[in-house]
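Could you join me in thinking about how sequence relates to backbone shape in a protein? We need material for that, and I hope you will provide a protein of your own picking. Label the sequence line and the structure token line clearly, so we can match residues to local backbone shapes. Would you write everything just below, so we can both look at the same thing?
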Amino acid sequence: MALAEAMEVDDALVDLVRTAARVHDLGKIGVTDAVLMKPGGLDDDERRRMREHPEIGARILGRYGLYKDGVELVRAHHERWDGTGYPRGLAGDRIPLGARIIAVADGFDAMTSDRPYRAGMHPLIALEELRRGSGGQWDPVIVGHFVRLLTDPVSNLPDTPAVRRAHEPIPRPVLVDLALGTAEAEAS
């Protein structure tokens, strides 16, 4: 929501992003825990099942009036700016703006959160990953807004652990890994 507000989109879209973002991964209830909590990489079948969650979530939400307007945002939150995302392979401005906003915020959250298969990365490293993926995975304009929002010391972001960590210095071992080029390999 803070990202949508920073982009100065209309209030209706800010509200829609807030509503859809809260439930954007609802479709994961259709994916088994064995896949969701797997400590290693996914095989082709597991990846295919995981890629179904945006459609599952959209079908569920379409049944509820409160969420009907956000169905397309939920369906499209894994589309990529370059057209290689899923479920429909939309590209650029064909991806709903709200879904592009959710994708950037969700990408940052995914990178900075601990997962069964890896530890969350430092927020400054995640910001660099967003910059690298700008124009490929994510809308470059939205990435620019997000980076400014998160790094601006006077921004009105909520007080969350990720936001607090983004304003901390990168730990020395991580800096060494970055200098040696090993942090990027571990982050991917």
User: Anything to note?
Assistant: Confidence is low (pLDDT under 50) at residues 182-188. The CA atoms of residues 173 and 183 lie 10 Å apart. The radius of gyration is 17 Å.
